[in-house]
Amino acid sequence: MTVKTFFHRLGSPPYFYRISKPWGRAFAWISLILILVGLYGGLWLAPPDYQQGNGFRIMYVHVPSAWMSLFVFMVIAVCSFIALVWRMRLSYAVAAASAPLGAAFTAVALVTGSLWGKPMWGTYWVWDARLTSELILFFLYLGVITLNRSFEDQKTGDKAAAILALVGAIDVPIVHYSVDWWQTLHQGSSFKGLTSEIAPSMLWPLLVMMTGFMFYYGWLVLWRTRSELLLRESDRDWAQQEIRP
Amino acid sequence: MTSWHEFVTMGRFGFYVWPAFGFGLVVMLLNIYWAHLREKAAHREVRESRSTEEESRS
Amino acid sequence: MNPWLFFFRTELGISWRERRRVMLPLVFFSIVAFLFPLTLNPKGHLLARMAPGIIWVDAMLAVFLGLESLFRHDHEEGILEQWVISPTSLELRVLFKVASFWTVTSLPLLLVSPLLVLWLSFPLRGLGILMVGLFLGTVTLCFLGALGAALTLTLRQSSMLIAILFLPIATPILIFGAHSAVLAARQLDPRPALYLLATLFFLTVGIVPKAISAALRISYET
Fold first, then answer.
1. Which of A51, A57, A132, C109 shows the greatest Cβ crowding within 10 Å of its Cβ?
2. Over the stretch C167-179, which tens digit does the pLDDT of each residue have?
3. Which other chains touch chain B, taking contact as 3+ CB pairs less than 8 Å apart?
4. Tell me, what's the ipTM?
């Protein structure tokens, strides 16, 4: 089977529904193992930071979630583009399945960032570029989710949310830049980056955690996409055959 | 880490480190629960559309 | 007469007939600005320092106020459907529609902004920059807001949803806009902020009419 025909078949909902189940199960186990290894490495093996003591360990949950929040939005934007241009039904389902997961990652990044900020900066919230754009990203996720579910006809909701996601994807870097620019203008408080040079013994658990989060997202997005496909095609024959009474 | 005590108190940062990991864990578990709910809703939807189809046929 | 100019004039005429709609954002804009000196300390330079932020947030709220009814009437009368199926460019129609929306809702705000500057004891030397910024910013805000209105066209009670869609996307414009006025008030060079605002202006006018048209089209596709 060539790559091209594989993608063609992957785009067909019944085929995707069938093959995604074993993949999802595999992703779940891989992510569980990776996250456990990453936690052991990050919380036990890694030495305390010479400046931040043990407080830096929040990084092992904060950085992967922040990275996932951006990655998932990128996935939604790419899927929205594919869906709008090539009218691919599967793409809408993947975008709709991703949005709540991305919002959850964003919430975790915001809360853990706040909890990390208190011991490091002395306050739970600062208006630095990263925290602010993360907050805007959270609102964008809420907008995409709400818009998608507001319409009686699911197809209208899918398309409206796709347009919003594309505009949002252009907006997020602009927000980041604007807050950065505004920060340099004020110069009142200098917030240094949270991590500068990072020792290998601290780095490998972070990379393991990030990979674990990727597989966790992969597992849940396959699972949710299957539900979204069923909801969108509930009266088709394939859906009726998959779900026995 | 050199001792259990240090692990639990995280130096003096336990008050911040553990809630951060706890919140992450709770949200990740909730994600699983929500995905499960969504799946149940999808299955219900498929079954309901089948029953309406049978009604219209009979 | 150029048909597009004619279209623009007709749109303006329709809005003008409903003068109440034109006056309301203006009254709202003034009342909100008038509440700040009463709730904050009206003396001292605290107010003057907050003035750019107050005026800009106020302007954004005034634009937002008119959004829900922007396409509502044309949608209910079936005019929008005619636009969507007609062979003339929907993007251009949207462009002129939003331009006329700006003329009746935001241009009056620009004209009363000197009054607000006096109320909020903002230094007069910043007034010119404030108005240039407000011009660039309100046009951009109108287009972004129109996108929110187009996406929620067929929904009832859509104003809260429009707010959720519109406000996050509008933040960079508020940041650059308010800070151009801050820089001008401090007698610093406001041009970087204005250039950035102008960039967003052209980016928005270039891209967003396309997105609005796509959003209008999906409401009529089945």
1. A57
2. 999 999 999 999 8
3. A
4. 0.87
